[in-house]
């Protein structure tokens, strides 16, 4: 059961209702207390200073002379948001008036990054703000550094969602992003004795000036209880859900500005609150913990991103999170956003809900429940509406990443939803039987309900059955999705499957993150590339211009020096700025094969310390890792430990000083990525072929002038095709070759025995050389490589080293390397999230 507080007088798609118009360089607002329009002049330094000081005095309650850095940051942020507010209000008004179809983007993650720089860029206020702060005696860089990045995502999935909502605003497409306002979000990673330690990320502790709470739009969300079916006066069955407990969903609105186009969309994140947070009678009896237990239970739902789910309690909390945010979101749009008299038969004309992976798939039975139980629709009519209102993006090829919820847990937590899922499945399987009579094995394979090892709901199957479209996120991924992950469904509904290759926003990941390169691009080809990344093609002729190559190298070197300074201050790490920067940053997972990179480093080190290769013949390289391991992923955490242990020894050994160094800065996030990616020379994209869905880091590196060493996996395939084979270091097995080796039977120990260099590398690791002689400390990783090696690290080791030798040869010619790097930039315009959004609009949303 989902309900709401009394409907407020003001309702909106995007923002509070105020009549706002932008006229020329000024903003004009029709104020309810004014007889005419109130005009706010165009931004000036003087006006900015006045607004900033006003926010400092009346917002923070302090004087400039007595203010802290945090006071100044909050005042600056609120000053900048004032310049967004009129556009936000205008956008909401226009959306309501035009009743355009809206994209409801349902995502458990939004890895936004810091907002101040992005909003200054969107409003074109960077220069004005900098001069204004200088007049106040403030270094704006200090205030930028004060902002704490929202930890609302884990990796590529969350960063992709943030890129998509950025692009939709820049393209003036109506969109509401829906998600969870995690109080702590993803954990903050630290290292103790080289091991990952997770600590809470208190990103809200100093205040968040970018959010707007709206308690008048709160939603009541129910859990547990039982259902009862009755027959009404017309002979129709009606189901009533009587829940055991409820929580309140409190929305917080975030502005999502387009790039200097006067459009500001909305991100609406939900925070869980108790219906009765405090029991005074229990408190007065002396049981203080029990008095606030309801509050604790409710707020746990939005406490942490992806709670550890190796326990039954953790699994239940994850399902609570997923239902909580989609129930709030669907109810918000249907009851708080649509006009009160809206005909829900036309719901698909006003909204398309995009399911960003399986996390929000429980929204499908929730919409059916709303339509059938609350709005009185017949089942068939409700199902027809529902099928038009959802589309599903699958982000994985790993079976374990396709969520499956036990029927016992679903039935206990969401009993009505399980009943709806059972009926959806029954009717779907009848459709399968009609299409393939007598093939009961096919029926079992396609059932939404798995029977073994326990009865459970396969959420990817439910999404595929209900969605109007199902898409993968790179050409290879989408093909494997059709052929390997959901083959029976793609044969039944070939027209339902499509591809939309991922993209990244050039505003944050070039214009904001790499100001030097951005300025060089604009000086060379104009600034149109910022919103039309295909225009980077105009850069191609300059790859053959010696003067431009020299400028390009100077940009890369300056970015390296910036990173060196940052890591010295942030982490106490010292990078040699003249070395090749070889970077592997991504979530720590076996299939991404950080262990393959580690074996390469150890093999180079082994060559030198054994005397096989003179140190002066080794190309100077700094290897940089950035990765978090899920708290319950034991082997991934052992890999992190081993990388750090190797770094300790390599960095301290004079035999390789000036030639090899390893850095693993803790807590890799968007803020660090914005400094690291522009500095990189080599991008490591080395997952086992057929395992990575797409990747977006590979796109960011190419756009910033790094060359890629990678397998033919995910979007690497498209990157290589676009930039050219000669500008990409390809290695390793193809996906069919991986399948063939798997079928033949893969024995990693046999590969170890057959390759002397691999054997020497692993033996050095296993000896305890990097762990003070402690062989047991490295045993989990070494034993896994030798006896399991599920992602065929050893099988690709020789090809990887051969490719790295080609990297060394190419890097020895700085001019040729720069030419390849420039062509990577010039030919990567396809990987804009703006293009991704156009593909979604054309192939899926029709908005």
Automatic annotation (TrEMBL):
Keyword Glycoprotein appears in the UniProt entry: no
Gene Ontology, cellular component aspect: cytoplasm
Cofactor: pyridoxal 5'-phosphate
Stored InterPro entries: Glycg_phsphrylas (IPR011833), Glyco_trans_35 (IPR000811), Pyridoxal_P_attach_site (IPR035090)
Catalytic activities: [(1->4)-alpha-D-glucosyl](n) + phosphate = [(1->4)-alpha-D-glucosyl](n-1) + alpha-D-glucose 1-phosphate
Residues where N6-(pyridoxal phosphate)lysine is found: 700
Recorded family membership: Belongs to the glycogen phosphorylase family.
PANTHER family: GLYCOGEN PHOSPHORYLASE (PTHR11468), GLYCOGEN PHOSPHORYLASE, LIVER FORM (PTHR11468:SF3)
Protein name as annotated: Alpha-1,4 glucan phosphorylase
Native organism: Phycicoccus duodecadis
């Amino acid at each position: 059961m989902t309900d709401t507080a009394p409907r407020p007088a003001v309702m909106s798609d995007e923002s509070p209702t105020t009549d706002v118009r932008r006229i020329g360089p000024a903003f004009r607002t029709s104020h309810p207390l004014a007889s005419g329009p109130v005009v706010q002049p165009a931004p000036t330094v003087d006006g900015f200073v006045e607004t900033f000081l006003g926010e400092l005095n009346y917002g923070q309650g302090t004087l400039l002379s007595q203010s802290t850095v945090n006071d100044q940051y909050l005042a600056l942020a609120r000053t900048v948001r004032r310049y967004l507010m009129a556009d936000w209000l205008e956008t909401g008004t226009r959306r309501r008036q035009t009743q355009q179809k809206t994209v409801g983007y349902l995502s458990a993650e939004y890895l936004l990054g810091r907002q101040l720089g992005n909003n200054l860029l969107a409003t074109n206020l960077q220069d004005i703000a900098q001069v204004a702060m200088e007049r106040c005696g403030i270094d704006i860089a200090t205030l930028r550094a004060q902002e704490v990045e929202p930890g609302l995502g884990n990796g590529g999935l969350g960063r992709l969602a943030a890129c998509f909502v950025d692009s939709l605003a820049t393209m003036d497409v109506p969109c509401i992003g829906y998600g969870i306002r995690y109080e702590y979000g993803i954990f903050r990673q630290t290292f103790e004795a080289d091991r990952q330690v997770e600590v809470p990320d208190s990103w809200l502790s100093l205040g968040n000036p970018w959010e707007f709470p709206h308690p008048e739009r709160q939603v009541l969300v129910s859990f547990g209880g039982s259902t009862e079916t009755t027959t009404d006066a017309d002979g129709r069955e009606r189901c009533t859900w009587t829940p055991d407990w409820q929580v309140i969903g409190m929305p917080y609105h975030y502005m999502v500005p387009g790039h200097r186009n006067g459009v500001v969309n909305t991100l609406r994140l939900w925070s869980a609150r108790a219906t009765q947070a405090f029991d005074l009678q229990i408190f007065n009896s002396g049981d203080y913990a029990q008095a606030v237990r309801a509050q604790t239970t409710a707020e746990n739902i939005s406490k942490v991103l992806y709670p550890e789910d190796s326990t039954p309690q953790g699994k239940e909390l994850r399902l609570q999170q997923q239902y909580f945010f989609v129930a709030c979101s669907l109810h918000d749009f249907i009851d708080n956003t649509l006009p009160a008299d809206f005909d829900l038969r036309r719901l698909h004309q006003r909204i398309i809900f995009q399911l960003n992976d399986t996390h929000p798939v429980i929204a499908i039975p929730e919409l059916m429940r709303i339509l059938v139980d609350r709005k009185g629709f017949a089942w068939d009519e409700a199902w027809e509406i529902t099928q038009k209102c959802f589309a599903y993006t699958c982000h994985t090829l790993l079976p374990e990443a396709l969520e499956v919820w036990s029927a016992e847990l679903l039935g206990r937590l969401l009993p009505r939803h399980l009943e709806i899922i059972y009926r959806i499945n029954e009717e779907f399987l009848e459709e399968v039987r009609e299409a393939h009579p007598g093939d009961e094995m096919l029926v079992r394979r396609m059932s939404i309900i798995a029977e073994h090892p326990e009865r459970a709901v396969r959420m990817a199957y439910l999404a595929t059955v209900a969605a109007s479209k199902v898409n993968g996120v790179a050409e290879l991924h989408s093909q494997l999705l059709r052929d390997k992950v959901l083959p029976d469904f793609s044969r039944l509904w070939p027209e339902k499957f499509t591809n939309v290759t991922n993209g990244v926003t050039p505003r944050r990941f070039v214009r904001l993150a790499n100001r030097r390169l951005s300025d060089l691009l604009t000086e060379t080809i104009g600034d149109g590339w910022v919103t039309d990344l295909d225009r980077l093609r105009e850069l191609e002729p300059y790859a053959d211009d010696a003067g431009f190559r020299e400028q390009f190298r100077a940009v890369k070197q300056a970015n390296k020096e910036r990173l060196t300074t940052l890591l010295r201050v942030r982490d106490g790490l010292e990078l040699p700025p003249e070395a090749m920067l070889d970077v592997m940053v991504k979530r720590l997972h076996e299939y991404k094969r950080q262990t393959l990179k580690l074996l390469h480093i150890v093999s180079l080190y082994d060559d030198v310390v054994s005397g096989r290769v003179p140190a002066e013949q080794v190309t100077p390289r700094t290897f940089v890792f950035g990765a978090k391991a899920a708290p319950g992923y034991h082997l991934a955490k052992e890999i992190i430990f081993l990388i750090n242990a190797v770094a300790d020894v390599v960095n301290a050994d004079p035999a390789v000083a000036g030639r090899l160094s390893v850095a693993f800065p803790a807590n890799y996030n968007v803020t660090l990525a914005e400094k690291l990616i522009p500095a990189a020379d080599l991008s490591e994209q080395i997952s086992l072929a057929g395992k990575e869905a797409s990747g977006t880091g590979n796109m960011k590196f190419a756009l910033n002038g790094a060359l890629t060493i990678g397998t033919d996996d995910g979007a690497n395939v498209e990157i290589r095709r676009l930039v050219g084979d000669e500008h990409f270091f390809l290695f390793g097995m193809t996906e069919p070759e991986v399948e063939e080796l798997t079928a033949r039977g893969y024995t990693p120990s046999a590969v170890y025995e057959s390759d002397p260099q691999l054997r020497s590398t692993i033996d050095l690791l296993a000896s305890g050389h990097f762990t003070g002689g402690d062989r047991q400390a490295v045993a989990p990783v070494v034993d896994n490589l030798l006896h399991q090696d599920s992602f065929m690290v050893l099988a690709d080791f020789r090809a990887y080293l051969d490719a790295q030798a080609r990297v060394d040869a190419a890097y020895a010619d700085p001019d040729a390397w720069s030419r390849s790097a420039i062509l990577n930039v010039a030919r990567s315009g396809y990987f804009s999230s703006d293009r991704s959004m156009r593909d979604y609009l054309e192939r899926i949303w029709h908005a």
